[in-house]
Specification:
The chain has two domains: 32 residues; 92 residues, no CATH class. The longest helix is centred in the C-terminal third of the chain and has 24 residues. By secondary structure, the chain is mainly alpha-helical. 72% of the residues lie in helices and 0% in strands.
Length: 126
């Protein structure tokens, strides 16, 4: 409801919310595919990373690991804590996970990148 008591669905604010929600989902999808997009740099023998294809694949597996259980528990958690709090928590985990992944990439730390992908996965599919 806005300040006049009109439901949000009947105001122009709904379009802003729709745009921001869509923009966030688009960003999440782009971040999900970053290891594949960067694989040419990760596999470069003259570069600083020297990762194998199996290591790049593990970045995707670590993302998917929490999502074997969380979709089942995520609905229950959303009912208990509320949709707004649940979405804020999931969004924060997505941003935090991508930040950790980026720091790991800048520091050439594969383990930090794995941790970042795991945290990203915690919020990515709930």
């Amino acid at each position: 409801m806005d300040e006049k008591g009109v439901p949000t669905r009947e105001t122009r604010l709904r379009w802003v919310i729709l745009f921001l929600g869509s923009f966030f989902l688009f960003g999440s999808c782009v971040c999900y595919d970053i290891p594949s997009a960067l694989s040419i740099f990760f596999e470069d023998p003259d570069g600083p990373y020297h990762y194998k294809k199996s290591q790049i694949g593990l970045l995707y597996s670590v993302y998917s690991l929490p999502n074997t259980v969380l979709p089942l528990l995520g609905g229950i958690a959303m009912d208990k804590i509320g949709v707004k709090t649940g979405l804020m928590t999931a969004s924060t985990l997505v941003v935090l996970g991508q930040l950790i992944f980026t720091i790991g990439g800048n520091k050439y730390s594969y383990n930090t990148m794995l941790i970042g992908r795991f945290v990203f996965g915690l919020g990515g599919e709930v």
